[in-house]
Amino acid sequence: MTHVAVVDLGYGDAGKGTVVDWLCSDGPVHAVVRFNGGAQAAHNVVTPDGRHHVFAQLGSGTFTPGVRTHLSRFVLVDPLALVAEAAHLAALGVADALDRVTVDRRALLTTPAHAAANRARETARGAGRHGSCGMGIGETVAYALAHGEDAPRAGDCADPPALRRKLTRLRDRLAGELGPLPGPDVAACVEAFSAFADRVALVGDGHLRRLLRTGRAVFEGAQGVLLDEWRGFHPFTTWSTTTFANVDALLDEAGMPGDVVRLGVLRTYATRHGPGPFVTEDPSLTASLPDRHNAWGPWQGSFRVGHLDLVAARYAIEVCGGIDGLALTHLDVAGARDDLRACRAYELDGGRVERLAAGPAGDLDRQAALTRRLLTARPVLDRVTADWTETIAGELGVPVALGSFGPTAADKRAAGRLLSPPVPA
Questions:
Q1: Considering 8, 13, 21, 156, which one is annotated as catalytic?
Q2: Residue 77: beta bridge partners?
Q3: Can you give the pLDDT at residue 75?
Q4: Which DSSP state fits 17?
Q5: How far is the CA of 9 from the CAs of 253, 272, 330, in angstroms?
Q6: 220-253 as b/e: b if 16+ CB within 10 A
Q7: Which of 181, 271, 339, 420 has its CA 20 to 30 A from that of 122?
């Protein structure tokens, strides 16, 4: 059994969802395992018959009948958002999405109080916003770090008295710090979360081990490596580990270390949602390459577009610990335009830089210093005169395992045997 792990090598929005959808539709996949992030994820999937859904917590393989979703202990579970997501899928003809969900009892809960606190803090930053989806992701992690066992977790949904105590303490602590916060009261949240516990399967730590031995799984990441909490360009990052580190931890716990193909997803041009360094940003591309599934948001800000950044991609691959193959998306766009370029180096610190040195994980002062340097960098842009696939593979030293020429699974082309479906036992 060789599983597949999918990460985004950029700032997010590279097309993880459509890649996971293809993997699940192309061969026998038993489950999608979400290994980071929460309801802020936005993985767009379009089916060949035109249905469109933005996957957040449900696995992006859910359009394929029988493919399950497992929310691992690293996921921040928002029950209200998850039920709403399932309702949208039901309207598209997928009525059993929640029946196929399992949730690790240890997963942290994201609540309306977390979201309200998140928005209050981000608003207070004014022009110095870090970039946020406004859904309480950072607040969920920060509260758990500060208050440990008091942090509400998925398993508490099945224990209303314990849940009520934790939600009351959460509300009182945040209100004491930030003032009264909008949103439903504790009683309403307890009722809704208890109903959620009755609807989905809350499981223990042995479940994933059994799941991974039942059939092939696809580990689906959220956001991008350049936003990683430890390796991204601090402070414009997420409170989540977006590299393969969580996948490695889960496989180790399941007694299957290393049993995975590591797939990095990369657009043929770069994008970023919200503030932070973006060396290859080009306002003319932002104007001429609108993304129908990504736009300005009240919390994230603008959707920005730039040229392919091979320097940043090299950095992402290194801090991930390497990848086995690339999934290149938007190859149809690259093939149709003559104004897209590739950045092979930066003008930085008075010289030419082709690689960003990766320091030890966890040194946020170092990451903040790197961010300040990147804000002064200028791209060295070159025209791509050969095939885009061959050019990118050659520059990064990694084979292309999948090419995407459009939004649906039918628009994907596999290369080589790296992603071949497993042979049933």
A1: 13
A2: 109
A3: 98
A4: H
A5: 25, 12, 14
A6: bbbbbbbbbbbbbbbebbbbbbbbbbbbbbbbeb
A7: 271
Cα R_g (the chain), whole angstroms: 21
Q: What sign does the CA torsion over 78, 79, 82, 84 have?
A: negative
| Cβ partners under 8 Å of residue 367, min gap 6 | 230, 231, 232, 233, 234, 237, 359
Whether the full predicted model's pTM is greater than 0.70, yes or no, is yes
Task: Determine the 3-state secondary structure of 188 from DSSP.
Answer: helix
Catalytic residue among 3, 30, 43, 53: 43
pLDDT in tens, 292-338: 777 666 656 678 999 999 999 999 999 999 999 999 999 999 999 99
Distance from the first to the final alpha carbon of the chain: 10
Give the pLDDT confidence score for residue 300 in this predicted structure.
63
CA within 13 Å, CB half, 185: 1
In 3-state terms, what secondary structure has residue 396?
A: helix
Looking at the DSSP assignment, which residues form a beta bridge with residue 34? Answer: 71, 220
Active site residue 411: no
Q: Give the chain's domains with CATH numbers.
A: 3-101+206-414 (3.40.440.10), 112-201 (1.10.300.10)
Closest CA to 73 of 103, 30, 114, 32: 103
Give the CA angle between residues 390, 384, 308 to the nearest 5°: 90
Q: In 3D, which of 242, 412, 221, 408 has the Cα closest to residue 321?
A: 242
% of the chain beyond a pLDDT of 70 = 96
Partnered with residue 52 across adjacent β-strands are 46
Q: Please, what is the Cα angle at 53 between 2 and 218, to 5 degrees?
A: 5
- Six-digit token string for 253: 């716990």
Q: What 3-state class would DSSP assign to 214?
A: coil
Share of the chain above pLDDT 90, in %: 86
Residue whose pair of structure tokens reads 């009525």 in the numeric block: 95
Q: Is residue 43 flagged as an active site residue? A: yes
Inter-residue contact 117 to 174 (CB < 8 Å) = yes
Tokens for 249? Answer: 């931890």
User: What b/e string do you get for 314-341 counting C-beta neighbours within 10 Å, with b at 16 or more?
Assistant: bbbbbbbeebbbbbbbbbebbeeeeebb
